[in-house]
Amino acid sequence: MLEGKIALITGAGRGIGRAIAAALAEAGAEVALLDAGRPEEVQESAAQIAALGRKAKAYLCDVGDYWRSKECVEQVIGDFGGVDILVNNAGITRDALLLSMKPEDFAEVLDVNLKGAFNLCKHLCGHFIKKRGGRIINISSVSGISGNAGQSNYSASKAGLIGLTKSLARELASRNITVNAIAPGFIETEMTAKLPEKAREALLTQIPLKRAGKPEDVAALAVFLASDSAAYITGEVIKMDGGLCI
Ligand code: NAP
């Protein structure tokens, strides 16, 4: 389905990003996996994909760093010969109620979750425009749609990502570049493993499908959005939340 395509996925060392990289590779794409802090995790993800016979390479890149992400995009284009699919998945939380939230925690979350996506889009857009084609998939969150107490920084970053998605979809449509967002609900990863047991149980009771999602659920949607079948979808925000925010 994605044979001959090259995908760049940020935050691909573990969790949803790793599952997206694996699913895109399974669908035929070659994959560049970017991650920031844990080199062994992202190397291992790339090695597992490469073992299946698909080209995969790991890169260390803090997406919030404008110049490093530029350098990294250039490295990927040099190594793979181009990029067709960008998945902005890297994300962090620094949860606290506003009264106790430190300004640096607000800034850091915006830097990674929103500015990180801006950086990668900015560095790859020219390449996509020249090729007259490309797919951008931004991993937002239902918190960016409904808000969430204790996550004003995270929710603001994810709502910002939706605005970025819709604006870029309008800017780039004439060049055959689609830009969409996925808004996951509660997905079992290291990020949600930090939640206290009581909060997890309370959240589960609110999910009509009565279970947390799996990274593979989100990955399947990313593969669809990257495929030819989704060529006429742009500027959309698709929830993947088991009905949490119906
Ligand atoms: P995760 O398990 O914590 O993984 C996040 C990944 O992002 C890690 O590999 C992490 O690597 C990387 N990362 C963090 N900061 C980075 C930076 N500055 N530059 C590059 N990579 C960076 O989280 P996840 O649950 O898979 O979440 C993936 C995405 O889905 C995030 O954007 C998250 O907001 C979104 N999401 C998740 C859920 C959920 O329920 N899990 C729900 C809605 C949305 P290092 O730590 O090694 O840097």
Outline of the structure:
The protein has 246 residues and is an alpha/beta fold. The chain has helices at residues 15-26, 39-51, 66-80, 103-131, 143-146, 152-172, 190-193, 197-205, 215-226, and strands at 6-10, 30-35, 56-60, 85-88, 134-139, 177-184, 237-240.
Describe this structure in words.
With 246 residues, the protein is of the alpha/beta class. Helix content is 48%, strand content 15%. It is built from nine helices and seven strands. Helix 1 (15-26) packs across helix 9, helix 3 (66-80) packs parallel to helix 4 (103-131) and helix 4 (103-131) runs parallel beside helix 6. The longest helix has 29 residues, at 103-131. It is globular. The structure holds NADP nicotinamide-adenine-dinucleotide phosphate (NAP). NADP nicotinamide-adenine-dinucleotide phosphate binds next to helix 1, strand 2, helix 4 and helix 7.
